[in-house]
UniProtKB/TrEMBL annotation:
SUPFAM superfamilies: ARM repeat. GO terms for molecular function: guanyl-nucleotide exchange factor activity; small GTPase binding. One of its GO terms (biological process) is cell migration. Keywords: Cytoplasm, Guanine-nucleotide releasing factor, Phosphoprotein. Residues 320-504 form the C2 DOCK-type domain. This is Dedicator of cytokinesis 1. It comes from Anser cygnoides. CDD domains: C2_Dock-A, DHR2_DOCK1. Residues 942-1349 form the DOCKER domain. It is found in: Cytoplasm. Its main location: cytoplasm. Belongs to the DOCK family. GO terms for cellular component: cytoplasm; plasma membrane.
Length: 1393
């Protein structure tokens, strides 16, 4: 049994949706491939090593094996991106110290070339594997996809049909038949015997299918049962209806292409409990070969789903006569119904006598043939789109008499109604055309006929009528008329119906010319024409009917043996066919031709006629001469060797030569070889050769600097030529050590020294910061090897730079601030000793500038600017920050004048580094909120130190982050900070103010205008129209009184008008606010042990917000309490998140001095807020068994954010203030009084209000167990002990007593109203409540005094006056106005008295 690898994959099933589960080759998969390759190489090396160590190999074999081993190691190094190893002829590693530079260079070239050849060889081997595979499929150009359905996990609720097929998504068409499995409502196959044997092969696939860009495996599920699943009364419901349920799709391109060779398990995506599990395997060969070679997979019980179309090879004897019919779409008028019909299409095949052909329709492979097929029903859809395909297989002799019949019926969900529904229309199409060819492939727009149901069942009623709209037009009728047309006893309906067909028949053709040849005996008069026309028939159609065509040609020749009339034409036809087979396009039909010759060819005497025709052709052929063409290859260029001892010439050549030159490596090797041979006296002699002209010396040094700078910036050698690169670097260090010793002597008496020094510094810094010297980026083994052989050259050159700097003396000031950046770059190199040696240069710069200008402002500005770019670029770390702080502070504190200012500067830079390091850490973090926080930290720092350019830079970084998250409100506030830096003036814009290319402004006023326009746009998108209006007013003032731009003004005012309308008409979602505490040392410093108020997203619940938080910090633990945590939590190494909802405190702007619409006020309830409250119950003291609420307090915390929300962030840090229980008591008492008063007013305004809420409110307060709700307050606050301990609360206690006293008149009015409205049944309840109230009133008035309010009559009078004032002036005479007003006013005055 052959070993096979299956692809086991669950395909996600989404109800009523088309979805796809793709397998993408990831980087992880590439690494696995690499791992497997390296593992095989290591196994080989272990095996070869054991052979070498055995000592049994002859010398020649041992030498060959060593070469094999080294070649394998070098190949492995290359594919793993390791360094190139150079060897001698025996495979031994070359020692750079014992090998000349030129020899090393040539060894690198040879080794690199060998590795490249090895790579090509490996690639060729892989291609050979692919070629072998392709050859295997080429030998049997048919292949099949084996599918094993493991399970369908889907809660359907009824029986179902599971239809699987192959689909080309780019061409948007199915390429195979369906494989149909009937699934029961119990979740098992209906045919239980096939439970573990649901297998199918999709056959007839060819090389063209292999080359498809994409192939999908599609599963459709059709529910078979009721119209609606939610209908439960099954007795009265129609059953057996086919209804759409779901579809799933998987990309199987890699499986078809053979890229997946091992078993893979695909996790189900989407719904974890829903899916389709299948195993897939590509098999070579046709169905006969597959059954023979893979009997363990494919047997006689395996369903065969054929390709919808011909295979690439049709073998003689392979007879097929399939017609694929696809129901495409329809459009059906609802007729007398109120809704669209539930149309079911029934497909059947009838002959011309009206007899139905039985068992000729196949809904899918694996299922039995049926006599009629019923379509899926789309509920109340006027224009259903089915795209359902069935196969119709009719005996060839019956095709010319058969037609497809489509009947349409409305299906009702109620069984009683459904039985009365009859066929309301019919369509048909004949399978054979009038010219004897079969129905054309493609779409057919069929005519929908209407008639009485009985007439529609009679084939003679409609068979004489046109079946398609094209036929209708050919007969002179209109196919686009809106009104119905009568044809015979049928009426052409306005409904439409489209199908598509595909004929796959080896006996029926759609080509008239080929049909004429195949049926040549029926009309011999046209035989000569038919033979000539054969050469014009499409080759694909000819090879499909190859056996029949060849039989026809030989029969024509042999049956006309007495005549030579057709011999030449037959010969030409045979040559044409053989030429077709020889064509690359049809070369896979060679086996078909050979099979025909061996098994089916029977015209044994045809050769006599064929050879005669051939001889005639040969005799008349003209011999053509052949001219040989000579091709000359490109001549090789001869390269001359540059004089080795002319160093300057070599240097100039290296400088001028491009990096793409083939010779550049050789010239650099020559230069390196020359420098390598030079000793001390050579360098001294080199300087002397320039004579007394010091300018020549400077020119030489400049050339050398330029050359090395170019070599450092653009490496000549590949990165893996480590030895050559390190040799080049070593020569630079030596050159610097020997030649640069004389730079000070040369420059001390030379006016142009500055440029030489400057070039030296920049070159040296570029050298020690080059990638090839950053040892910390290498593996430990490579780092140790380089340190052992070459040392850390960065340290050597760094010390040279330090010494050169200190030797500048009085010239140092010329290099400030230009050299601050390069020196900073050098100090940031992560080499501790180098940092310690070079950081003091900064203090020397500070000191130098201070002595010159009495400040070090230029140095400070430059280092801050450069530090930002360097840290963002990846340089700098915590150790550098510590060293910078320690070293510079030590130097500054020792200086007489720089002690204070220097320390301030150092602390400033350290703070900046903290923020920049935090920013860099999360710069590429997926959590954009963390990035925003760090960005704000940095921009606030730059704002604090008044670095406007850097501040604006980070403002736009923050703005971009907000726009990525659709935080348009926050983006607007961020841009507003930039706008506030600008004036409404004609003052020119500095370069740093216009950091974005989108702004084209010459003046600050113009830039501010553009910014305001953009900010208003963002506020509009964020629905912050109040803010947009405020900015618009400021901008309008400029347009109207300064710019006089009335066109812009009018447009702006129209926007403002729309904003005002939006405020009062558009309902805006109110976001919730959440307090979030991040506790524990595991959080980044910028949020660690801090509390923030977050503004939630629209309609975001706390649960969703918490889930979002925990997604950002997956290792964090959610705290279950809202109390502040202790130090144990704060100092722990973990992460703890505390989250709860807080309530924003309304802070109305002062302009709202009178009541306004709630639609206006609602904005300020959740916007422009800075104070947030949270209340939680706490118990103080021991629990009182008699009154569990005696010691229960409400602790209310007010959180005040650093800035108002919303702002430049959706969150801000907070500080909390705990309100005392006394203040809480005052607030609670005030709310209770307001509640009583409000309910009293409601009952005064509306006498019909129900009394129950008032009863509950009053009784809950006057009940003896509650006693007004202030008993606990008396015990807690009205005691001598409390007054003694809290003398500052005297006024608050008096206010609380006053509120208690005021509660009595409010309650009295409420009880009075209650007595008027109470029913007799509740009279006892009311009398008890009155008695309780009298007791309460007596107690309160005795202790806290009497309070009184005007009665309801006074309130009524005021309402009369107010109502009167609201009436229009023209509704009364002046006398009525005066009389009414005087009467109301008098009543009010009397009541007041």
């Amino acid at each position: 049994t052959k070993k096979t690898s299956l692809h086991s994959m669950p395909v996600s099933l989404y109800a009523s949706k088309l979805t796809s589960t793709h397998f993408f080759p990831s980087k992880q998969q590439d690494n696995r491939e690499m791992f497997r390759s390296v593992r095989h190489m290591i196994y080989d090396l272990i095996e070869w090593r054991s052979q070498i160590l055995s000592g049994t190999l002859p010398q020649d074999e041992l030498k060959e094996l060593k070469k094999k081993v080294t070649a394998k190691i070098d190949y492995g190094n290359r594919i793993l991106d390791l360094d190139l190893v150079v060897r001698d002829e025996d495979g031994n590693i070359l020692d750079p110290e014992q090998t000349s530079t030129i020899s090393l260079f040539r060894a690198h070239e040879i080794a690199s070339k060998q590795v490249e050849e090895r790579l090509l060889e490996e690639k060729s081997q892989k291609q050979n594997i692919d070629i072998n595979r392709q050859a295997k499929f080429a030998a049997t150009p048919s292949f099949a996809l084996f599918v094993n359905l493991k399970n369908v996990v889907c809660k359907i609720g009824e029986d179902a049909e599971v239809l699987m097929s192959l689909y080309d998504p780019l061409e948007s068409k199915f390429i195979s038949e369906n494989y149909l499995v009937r699934w029961s409502s119990s979740g098992l196959p209906k045919d239980i015997d096939r439970l573990h044997n649901l297998r199918a092969v999709f056959t007839d696939l060819g090389s063209k299918d292999l080359k498809r860009d994409k192939i999908s495996f599609v599963c459709q599920i059709v529910r078979v049962g009721r119209m609606e699943l939610r209908d439960n009364n099954t007795r009265k419901l129609t059953s057996g209806l086919r209804r759409p349920f779901g579809v799933a799709v998987m990309d199987v391109t890699d499986i078809i292409n053979g890229k997946k060779k091992k078993k893979h398990k695909f996790n189900n995506c989407g719904f974890h409990t829903t899916g389709l599990w299948v195993t897939l395997k590509l098999l070579p060969g046709d169905i006969h070969q597959i059954r023979k070679e893979f009997p363990h997979l494919v047997d006689r019980s395996t369903a065969v789903a054929r390709k919808m179309g011909f295979p690439e090879i049709i073998m003689p004897g392979d007879v097929r006569n399939d017609i694929y019919v696809t129901l495409v779409q329809g459009d059906f008028d609802k007729g007398s119904k109120t809704t669209a019909k539930n149309v079911e299409v029934t497909v059947s095949v009838y002959d011309e006598d009206g007899k139905r052909l039985e068992s000729v329709i196949f809904p899918g492979a694996g299922d039995e043939a049926i006599s009629e097929y019923k379509s899926v029903i789309y509920y109340q859809v006027k224009q259903p789109r089915w795209f359902e395909t069935v196969k119709v297989a009719i005996p060839i002799e019956d095709v010319n008499r058969s037609h497809l019949r489509f009947t349409f019926r409305h299906r009702s969900s109620q069984d009683s109604k459904d039985k009365s529904e009859k066929i309301f229309a019919l369509a048909f199409v004949k399978l054979m055309r009038y010219d004897g060819t079969t129905l054309r492939d493609g779409e057919h727009d069929l005519i929908v006929y209407k008639a009485e149901a009985k007439k529609l069942e009679d084939a003679s009623t409609y068979l004489s009528l046109p079946s398609t709209k094209i036929e209708l037009e050919e007969k002179g009728h209109s196919a686009t008329g809106k009104s119905m047309q009568n044809l015979g006893s049928c009426t052409i309906s306005k409904d439409s119906f489209q199908i598509s067909t595909l004929v796959c028949s080896t006996k029926l053709t759609q080509n008239v010319d080929l049909l004429g040849l195949l049926k040549w005996r029926s009309n011999t008069n046209l035989l000569q024409q038919n033979l000539k026309q054969l050469m014009k028939v499409d080759g694909g159609e000819v090879v499909k009917f190859l056996q029949d065509t060849l039989d026809a040609l030989f029969n024509i020749m042999m049956e006309n043996s007495e005549s030579e009339t057709f011999d030449t034409l037959v010969f030409d036809a045979l040559v044409f066919i053989i030429g077709l087979i020889a064509d690359r396009k049809f070369q896979h039909f060679n086996p078909v031709l050979e099979t025909y010759i061996k098994k089916h060819f029977s015209a044994t005497l045809a050769y006599t006629k064929l050879t005669k025709v051939l001889k005639t052709y040969v005799d008349n052929a003209e011999k053509c001469g052949i001219t040989d063409q000579l091709f000359k290859g490109p001549t090789q260029r001869h390269v001359q060797i540059i004089m080795e001892k002319l160093l300057r010439t070599v240097n100039r050549t290296v400088i001028s030569m491009g990096r793409d030159s083939e010779l550049i490596g050789s010239f650099v090797a020559c230069m390196t070889a020359i420098l390598r041979q030079m000793e001390d006296y050579h360098y001294a002699h080199l300087i002397k050769t320039f004579g007394k002209m010091r300018s020549d010396v400077v020119d030489f040094l400049m050339e050398t600097f330029i050359m090395f700078k170019n070599l450092i910036g653009k490496n000549v050698y590949p990165f893996d030529w480590v030895i050559m690169n390190m040799m080049q670097n070593k020569m630079f260090c030596r050159y610097a050590e020997k030649a640069f010793q004389r730079i000070n002597d040369i420059c001390s008496c030379l006016s142009g020294a500055f440029q030489l020094w400057n070039n030296y510094f920049h070159l040296a810094v570029a050298f020690l910061t080059q990638e090839s010297l950053q040892l910390e980026n290498f593996s430990s083994a490579k780092r140790a090897k380089i340190l052992n052989k070459y040392g850390d050259m960065r340290r050597q050159i760094g010390f040279e730079i330090r010494d050169m700097w200190y030797n500048l003396g009085q010239h140092k000031i010329k290099f400030i601030p230009e050299m601050v950046g390069p020196i900073l770059e050098m100090t940031l190199i992560p080499e501790t000793e180098l940092r310690k040696a070079t950081i003091p240069i900064f203090f020397d710069m500070m000191q130098c500038e201070f002595h010159s200008t009495r400040s070090f402002q230029m140095f400070e500005n430059e280092i801050i600017t450069k530090l930002d770019h360097e840290v963002e670029g990846g340089r700098g770390d915590e150790q550098y920050k510590v060293l910078f702080d320690k070293i510079l502070l030590e130097h500054c504190r020792k200086h007489k004048y720089l002690a204070k200012s220097g320390e301030t500067f150092v602390k400033l830079v350290v703070r900046l580094m903290e923020r920049l390091l935090d920013y860099r850490t999360i710069m590429h973090d997926e959590n954009k909120e963390n990035r925003m926080s760090c960005t704000v930290n940095v921009l606030n720092f730059y704002k604090e130190i008044e670095r406007e350019e850097m501040y604006i830079r980070y403002l736009y970084k923050l703005c971009d982050l907000h726009k990525e998250c659709d935080n348009y409100t926050e983006a607007a506030y961020t841009l507003l900070l930039h706008a506030k830096l600008l004036k409404w003036s004609e003052e020119a814009c500095a370069a740093h103010l216009t950091q974005r290319d989108g702004y084209q402004a010459a003046t600050q006023g113009q830039l501010k205008d553009q910014l305001y326009q953009e900010i208003i746009h963002y506020f509009d998108k964020g629905k912050m129209w109040e803010e947009a209006i405020a900015l618009g007013k400021e901008l309008a003032e400029q347009y109207e009184n300064e710019m006089f731009d009335y066109e812009q003004l009018s447009e702006l005012l129209r926007k403002q008008a729309q904003f005002y309308e939006n405020i009062v008409k558009v309902i805006r979602p109110k976001p919730d606010y959440f307090a979030v505490g991040y506790y524990g040392q595991g959080f980044p410093t910028f949020i660690r042990n801090k509390v923030f108020i977050y503004r939630g997203k629209e309609y975001e619940r706390r649960e969703d917000f918490e889930a979002r938080l925990l997604t950002q910090f997956p290792n964090a633990e959610k705290m279950k309490t809202t109390s502040p945590p202790g130090d144990d939590i704060k100092n722990s190494s973990g992460q703890y998140i505390q989250c709860f909802t807080v309530k924003p405190k309304l802070d109305l702007p002062s302009k709202f001095h009178r009541p306004v619409s709630e639609q206006i006020v609602s904005f300020y309830r959740v916007n422009e807020v800075q104070r947030f409250e949270y209340s939680r119950p706490v118990r103080k003291g021991e629990k009182n068994p008699d009154n569990e609420f005696a010691n229960m307090w409400i602790e209310r915390t007010i959180y005040v954010t650093a800035y108002k929300l919303p702002g430049i962030l959706r969150w801000f840090e907070v500080k909390s203030v705990e309100i005392s229980p006394l203040e809480n008591a005052i607030e609670t008492m005030q709310l209770t009084n307001d509640k009583i008063n409000n309910m009293v007013q409601q009952h005064l305004n509306d006498p019909n209000l129900p009394i129950n809420p008032l009863s509950m409110l009053l009784n809950g307060i006057v009940d003896p167990a509650v006693m007004g709700g202030f008993t606990n307050y008396e015990k807690a606050f009205f005691t001598e002990k409390y007054m003694h301990e809290h003398p500052e609360d005297h006024d608050k206690i008096e206010k609380l007593k006053d509120l208690i006293a005021w509660q009595i008149p409010f309650l009295a009015e409420g009880i009075r109203i209650h007595g008027e409205k109470v029913t007799e049944a509740l009279r006892p309840f009311h009398e008890r409540m009155e008695a309780c109230f009298r007791q309460l009133k007596e107690k309160v008035e005795k202790q806290y005094g009497v309070r009184a309010v005007v009665s309801c009559l006074l309130t009524s009078c005021f309402k009369q006056i107010w109502s009167f004032c609201q009436k229009p002036a023209n509704s009364f005479s002046i006398e009525n106005i005066i009389d009414n007003f005087v009467e109301s006013h008098t009543n009010c005055m009397l009541l007041c008295e």
